[in-house]
Amino acid sequence: MEALAALGLASNIVQFLDFTWRLTETAAKVHESSSGAAKNILELDIVYRKLNSFCSSLLAPPQPGGQDCDETKRMQALFPDDVQRQITVNSHISDLRKLASNCTSLCQQLLDATSKLRAREGKSNCKFESFKVALRTLYSEKKIAQLEDMVKRYQTEIALHFLPLIKEHVSYTNSLLQQLREESALLRIEHATQFDHILDRLNELNRNLSAIVPQRIAGYSAVELENTAGSFTTRQLTEKNVEDIVNDISNLSFSEHNITTIEREQAFFRGLNFASRRDRFEDIPLAHKQTFDWIFNPLKQSSHKKAQEHTSLLEWLRSGEGIMWVCGKAGSGKSTLMKYIVNHDETRNALEAWAGQKKKLIIGTHFFWHSGTVMQKSQKGLYQSLLYDFLCACAEQIPRVCPVRWAATKTSGAVSAPLSEQWSTEELLAAINQLTRIPESRITYCVFIDGIDEYDGDHLELCQILKNFACSPSIKCCLSSRPWNVFEDAFGTSSGPRLNLHLLTYKDIFMYTRSRLTEHPRWRTAYFSLEEMESMVKTITRKAQGVFLWVFLVTRSLLSGLTDGDTIYDLQRRFDSLPSDLETFFKHIIDKVDKFHHTKMAQLLLTAINARTPQPLSFYLTQELEDRDSDYALYMTIEDLDVNQLSPLSESCRRRVNARCGGLLEVRRKRVVFLHRTVRDFLLTHEINDYLHRESGPKFNVNLSTLKVYVYMFRCWLADNSHIPLSNLLSKDQSILRDGLAYANDALVEDLQTALSLLDAVEDSYENAREPIDPLLLSERFEDFYENANGPMDSSLLGVTHGSSFQSEILKAGVDRYVTVKLQSNVYFYNLIQESPLYTIIKNPPWKQEHMNIVTELLKSGSDPNASGCETPWQLCLQRTLGGSSFHDNLTKALKSYVFSQFLESGARRDEPICIYGNYIGPSLRESRLPSTQFLIRLFLFETSHRLSRECLHALSDFYEHDGDFGQTKSQLIETLPVLQGGLHGLSVGKTEPGRMPFFAQVLRMLARKWQPVASELRAELRKLEPSLRETFPAGTADMLVKMICRPDDVGSSSKLSQQLPSSSKRSLESGDNQEDDSPSKKLPTLGYH
Predict the structure, then answer these.
(1) How far apart are CA 896 and CA 1079, in angstroms?
(2) Which of 330-334, 850-854, 900-904, 957-961 shows the lowest per-residue confidence on average (mean pLDDT)?
(3) In angstroms, what is the C-alpha Rg of the chain?
């Protein structure tokens, strides 16, 4: 029990002592005089009940897992090495417990006395004299005096223990609040007001106690207080003192509740946050001084006719609705403008005018970045950013919108890791929809999304999602992109307001050009006339056509000329020689790079293009080691680097990157990025990309070179942290390894043997860094291990788990080529890891095709689909594909890879009922059913299952295969019938794509054949399907299905059925082929209001 729990106990003691003191005073008065005593008789029952309550509170033990236990964990985390602090607190707590025990004894005495004074049943109106006699008997003057002395002594003791405990708790809470403040700043959550309020309450309690207990004893230990307590004098606790202390401690408990809520909110937001969420926004440069001022001052807006045709952004912010589209040429400053708008105070002022006084305004942002991480260019990243911003502004809605995630924060705390379970796209979408559709909510939302052209997906689908989202009168969106046709069609003039940026920035570019040139000391009237300078600035502005990036490149060239002493005529010729479009300009830059550096330039540019996310400058510094030794990643150690020289080496590397690439790459926030997205687009063109590969040299393999850097960095990282146990080290951070393994598959294609040696080196690093295994333990378990040597082995027999981290990471990363090679050379390669390899790969979403390939290889090599654990790999596979929030993508991948069939062929249990859980599954799906039934349910719910008809029928057939167990087939049929009823009803009332009906006719035909052995026994049950069949299918199809399913004895050959089915169904039944495109189409998600 920690400080706050102890203070709660002390509060109970204080109240009890104060009550006892007043009770003894009353008893003394009754003893001295009978006047007014009748009132006490009426209050006696209240006295008795209150004493009972006090006794219970003093005796109540701390609750396991309660507030005091949570506080213990937090305090140990905040002060892990402060033993003295723990001793000090515990000593005061120990004495408080003794005091509580003594008070309990006193309380019991009072209970015994008052119980005898209570009126007997039916005698409540006894004469007052009986009360006086009883009271005089029980409470003599001497006894009352003893009681008074006892209460005074206890009051002194409790007062002496209060202030030290308060001091410790204030210190602890301050430390906790400081940590919470720091994390709030990192997560950008507003909790400052709450923190200040909590501190105010702590300080108030401290002041109240200081007025009672002398400050000089505040730092005494419990032992010192006990030894010298007699020398201290404390003021008698008055009723007002007691009331203040009790209220303050009550407020402190409330503050502690607030802290716990803040901790839970931060744990939630840690799980919702992602590392690169703000990176793109931070990387965008601030708008140049005085540029874009016209956004909030319409009088400064361009007089261009086309610009005047469109609504001003300020007007839209104040009163507009729907979507405002900011479009502009590549390099016209769209991202800079969006950042300027989001950061400007006038934006919120204008939006609050739109929201009105009675509504709360929430602003959400997302900046797409095609060169960034997956989250920065995906639909999931968009949803996660928006949900984060929304809930940060209304955290009180978290329990309602994300109840499962919120419940999980109970086990988390301020010092814990993020919630590990990844969010799925569907889960994020559902949370946003639920939040924005709360009926009683008075919230308005404005969303700013930059660079929707940089979205790595179907742009048409994204446009529809955003248009659906902005349909609500309480939601509007400001979007920016290049003027591509897909966006013109979706957000053009007829669809809503737009802002053509490149037509509005003439004055901005003029000021920017003048400012850039003025930075140089030679751009002065001493060297050029004012007319010459103004003419040059105007010419550049006019030729720019609204493209800031082109102006930047032009002025950079002119500034270089000024440094070389160019005359105005030289500058004019230099300007005239520069291309007027960006792509030609980029080629011009590459051509200007010294031919001697073209090989290195090509390698650097290819590395940057190939990077999954912008690499740090240290990456490129490490890559240069390959010039010295192509095998550096295998043999060089951290000792070979002079750590003291890293800073100057990094600066030299930055200069080389800049010079070798002509400024097309630059360093921002210690990461190497493209000057602009258009640079990357240019480098990816067929002509330039081929040129770079030719120039890079025959021995340069970009993925292999990248993998080398990561392997070397990982080896150095392990060596630099060799003092930390490997298990502890890897539990904190494996990002270097995980980032590197993303390039492993492609590196294996480029050079199999070299890439294998690199990955083997990583495995060796694990081996060398692992903790030694007790030889005695090995000898005790060796016999059991040896007995399993010729078959699948349980690694727990040896306790050998040191290799599991690397091998598990290989599985999670989906390095299928490495796994295949290893299994070909050693079929038991994965038998020495702690967890089933199948389980490891299935439990870590999102799945890629490489993961499915590994599942196939593992099953072929004999991995057990029914391996024991919390759940078997087979059960987990069914849960991830047939249930959960991301079933759509998982099921599609599983079907296309025939994973179900492979599991079943490898011995996965068909007859073990399973329960499928998920946020999007109806109550009926939560029941425990056979795998075949669960799969059939999902076929009906999976709206594009017919596009994978061949794979679906193949899997369903395998699910229904049996080994002569007649009862199993019968039970399957009985269990499936209500599912078919519900599924057919859904087909009949829902929107049906072409091809779904023929597909489900195939499904029913196949099921009828499987059920034939038991159909006659269950004819009555089967005939219940007839109304649903006739309601769902066209007449001809329905007649034949009824005959086949409900009246199997009347059915002839399958050819008879196919002759009477519609032509589309006939082709499907005869061929079994997929008549649609094999690639599954995504179900269009709905974001926000409909």
Answers:
(1) 9
(2) 957-961
(3) 38
